[in-house]
Structures are given as C-alpha cells and as structure tokens.
Amino acid sequence: MEPLKAIRSRTVVIPNSNIDTDQIIPARFLRTTTREGLGKQLFADWRYRSDGSDNPDFVMNKPESQGCQVLVAGNNFGCGSSREHAPWALYDAGIRAVISTEIADIFRNNSLKNGLLPVVIEASAHAWLLANPGALIEVDLQANRVTLPDGRIAAFNIEPFARYCLLNGVDELGYLLSQEPRIAAYEKLHALEWHE
Amino acid sequence: MTNAKTLFQKVWERHEVAPETPDTPAVLFIDLHLVHEVTSPQAFSVLRERGLKLRRTDLTLATMDHSTPTRTEQVFGGAPISIESAAQQIRQLEQNCAEFGVELLGLRSAQRGIVHIIGPESGITQPGKTVVCGDSHTSTHGAFGALAFGIGTTEVGQVFATQCLLQRKPRSFAINVNGAMPAGVTAKDLILAIIGRIGVGGGTGFVLEYRGPTIRALSMDERMTICNMSIEAGARAGMIAPDETTYEYMKGRTRAPQGAAWDSALARWRELPGDEGARFDREIEIDAATLEPMITYGTNPGMVVPISGSVPVRHDDAVFDKALAYMGLTAGQPLRDQRIDSVFLGSCTNGRISDLRAAASVLRGRKIAKGVQMLVVPGSQAVKKAAEAEGLDIVFKEAGAEWRESGCSMCLGMNGDLVERGSYSLSTSNRNFEGRQGVGARTLLASPLTAAASALRGKITDPRDIVTGA
Q1: Cβ within 8 Å, pair A34-B42
Q2: Which of A104, A173, B386, B392 is buried deepest, with most CB atoms within 10 A?
Q3: What values do phi and psi take at A46, rounded to 5?
C-alpha cells in the first residue's frame, strides 16, 4: 500500500445524506472474485442511464469532476452492507478521501484498510463544502486537518493505529501476526470451551 | 465507580487477547467465523499470496447464500445456474474451502441456508461467543447474547490468518422495551419503529442491547428479527441477554454442547446477563403497547410510518423529495391501499419457520390478488423441510405463490431473483435502498403478516383487517 500523507484536490460533492453501499456499488457487481477494476461500477445506477450510456446530469460525469480525489457527501455516508467493494470502487475511481459529518462504522473500517481516508468534520465546515463544490482543499493526515480555500481549518480524528498504517503504507495484518504468542496463550486458556 | 457490567462488557472482556491502548486497538479473539461466497474470495487470495494457513478451521464454517439460485432445478440439477459469474463464485468457494480445510455446507447440502439462519438453527451460534462474518446482518446472532458483527473482506482475511481482529471498544446503548405488543404487531414492526425513532445513523458507534419485559417475552425467532436489523440503525451489533427461552431453543441442536458439556456451558452462559446497576452510554424507552404494524415509504429503513399513517410532508428537503420521486409516492398520501406488484417473503430478517407460519395463517384457503407475484423463500433448507412437513408449501402454492429453495433471493438483486423496474415490492427483508431488489425497484418493508395480507388484496393492507385462519 502507498503511504498516504496529504491530499490536495478539488472536491466533488454529492450532498445526499445516508448514501448506502448499494448506491456506491450495486449488489449485482459483487459477483466477482477479485478486487480490481470496480471503479467503473461506482455509483452505477446514478452514473449510467438504463441503456448504459453516461448520465450527463450525474456530478461525477461532469468534466470539472474528473481527477478529483475528494468526495464530499451528506451525513451518514456508507451505511448498509459490509461490502468492501464500496471502498475498492471509490479508490479505483481515484477517490482518496470522503468527507462527511458521519460515516458508517463498517464502511469507515473498510476504507481505512484500503488507503481511503474517511474524514468526519464539524457541521459548519461541512456545510461550506457542500455549498461550494469544486473547492480546492487540502486533507492533511499528518496534521489531522482539512484546510479550506480561505485558510479556515477543520480538524478530524482518525483512529491512531489506522492512521499510523496509512501514513506508513503498511497493513494491519503484519501487526496481528506479530501477536502470535499472545493469541496462542489465549487459545490455551480457553481451549476447553470450543471443544465441549 | 461500580463493577457492575453490561452483557456486552462481559463478552468483550472475555475475548481480549490484548486490551486496547491509546496507540493500538484491542486484539479481540473470534469464536466463530461464518463465511460465504461473496465476501470471501479476495480474503482467501490474501492467504495464498502471503503463504499463510487458515489458523482455526475448527472455528470457521462456510456456506453459500447470496448469489445462489433459488430455482430447484438450478440448485439440484436439470438446469445450469443461469448467471455464470454466480456459478463461478460458487465454484471458487468450493475450491477455497477444499484448499484451506474449511467445512462447507455446499449448494446441495441439507444444512445449507442463509448464513444467519443456519448458525442459530445448527446450535453453533451460542451465548457469549464472538461471531463475525463478511456480512452486515451478522448482528442477528446477538439474539443469543453473542457479540456478533459484520466485517469487511480485509478483516475476513485477518480472521482467517490470526482468528483475531483489531477493534476499538464501541459504546453501549440500551433499548428498553415495555408493554405488550398488540395483536397484529410483530417483532419486525417493533424494530422498524425503533429505527424510525433513533434514525438510520442513530446507532453508529454503539452496540445496542434490547432489554425489558417485552423483549423477554419474545421467542428466539422474534429476537433474531430484532437483532438482525440493528445494522439498519447504524449499530454493528445488537444483543439480547440469554435466558431460559434461549437455552430451550438451543438444547439438543446438533452443534450445541451436549451432555456434561451442556451443563458446564449453561453455567457459563448464566453469568452473562448484565449486572444490576450496569451503566449504558445511552438509553431510550419504547412502549410497545402503542405500536401498530409499520411500513416504509422511502429509500432507507428509517423512512417508516405506522400502516394507518401517511407519507410525511417535509419542506425544503431535496433528499426527501428525491426519495419520494424514486418511490413514486407523494407527501401526505396514505400508505394503506397503495398498489403493490410483488411480495417477497424470506431473508435473514423474516425467513424462519415462524415467519412462514404467520404468513400462511393469513393465506390459508385464500388466493393472492390477480397480477401480484409472490415469492416465498425459506431461510434455510431445514426451514424448507420443516415447512413442507407442516404443509405450508401447499398453503403458499394454493394461494398462488412460488415456493423456492433457500437463499438471500430477492433481498438483494444479485442471484437472478429481481423486482422489475418501477414496480412496488412489499418485502419482509431489511433494506429498501434504491435498486436493492433490482434496478428501479420500489421496496416497501413490512412484516410477514402485512406482506401476506397485502398479497391478498394487491394493496398495502393492515393485517388486523384480515381475519386469520390460524
């Protein structure tokens, strides 16, 4: 995984609240056994018309949205299913951070494991971002803050261990594997319960 | 400072391999890892890429449910699985389980079913366990006093390799339910009302514990319906303390402890319920006596009203307007008598035997409305067999419904069972998101009783208006 330190990008804004993972990537695209190439199915039912052509009204299809790495969305982004295909699709489409006032638990966890930053900021800065699509902002993971074009700052929190992994481009599995002696000791203590 | 602990705290602390610190999450041991075909292939690939073994095959159980067909000939032979990518996913799971030594309840197994139905019915879901699965409705297993939650595919790989997960301790949220549920009001209506009250993000960051006399009076099937939809309020887990109802349900099930092991397990389980005076981070009170059957009108499960109610009126809310436009409904419109085109009875929310019995009690000796398609999909092959032994399949078929093999089916549009674009689906499943049941499908969530009553008239119908033939 590539280290993620800071992102400087214009924003693309989808103001809807409660955007669920079925919108981010519909279930019919989950019949895959790999994680690659899901970006073209991102927001498929909003992005494409029923004949498969691009829906020109959908924000991500507009010329000014191309190359944007930051998605600003309404409250409670990523609710619904546990499909990791949702952050895979966003990442594959070039998104590196999602900003909202609330981000659903499982989606947030999944994002942190895939180099996609789930950023929760306070309501007034969020409202400004919703009202100003295309704003050039900086999301700085080293400083835990978003800087708006006028210099205003909105702080955010990322779970410290996940933050360490993102900043250094390492995944969590290595750390978990290093816990082997403690896991083995736990198993020895509880062995009876699993086999009665 | 008190030492009184909640059910959640007790289960959490028993599973800490390493407690959390400011820098690192807790390392939490997982007692049961349920696996299915959709969220596991990329996790098996990680094991392969890194040359790792699956650490605890004895605590891992796989089945297939999401992308599997429900037509008998596609399950048991005579016709190929109509969707090639689904067939491929099924083959992949078979190969992965064989390669890594995981027990698989495969496509033709009599023990197969929706993963959250077969865990409890086999007895492998047990009080005090930590249970995970790459599926958000893993919260279902919390009905037994397990700490059960959905995980992503990276985490599936972590559990494969280490049997552990890195977790920050969630906060606790007590939902205290009092009052007897009126006739015609079911567990589904209760959980929909709770989600309507706290909102689809109201449980984010919390583990819910459903408590109080109303919950104690519920059967295990009903408790599973409640815990199942905890995720629809944003909570990863919902729990109910185990009691005699739990133990009675579990006793004698094939994967439950037997003989002396049962007695020692029982002694352990009896220590799990929360201590008197244990504190929650948040609490609310619900009066079940005031509830009606509930029905959703929008595009998330929090957009829900009593069945006698109307679509709410909201001003200057573009997201709300968009939801109503998608649903083809207007603000202020009564829900009762709204036309429906199809009915889906099934899913991990309402695919258990008691759900089928409830719907059959309404349909017995009657016909569903002309032009309405009704699909009845048992939650597992065991549920199917039990229903057939009681003749429920005959009741459904004589009423004009289709009777299928078990699976997730029409709950999510990925296995060939789809709702047509623009048509109204009265569904006993858990999500009414845009496109969930098929592109352009308009989902109305309700209980099995409401689904059956509505099927008879082809319109949203209060089940209390139909005299049951039970």
Answers
A1: yes
A2: A104
A3: -100, -30
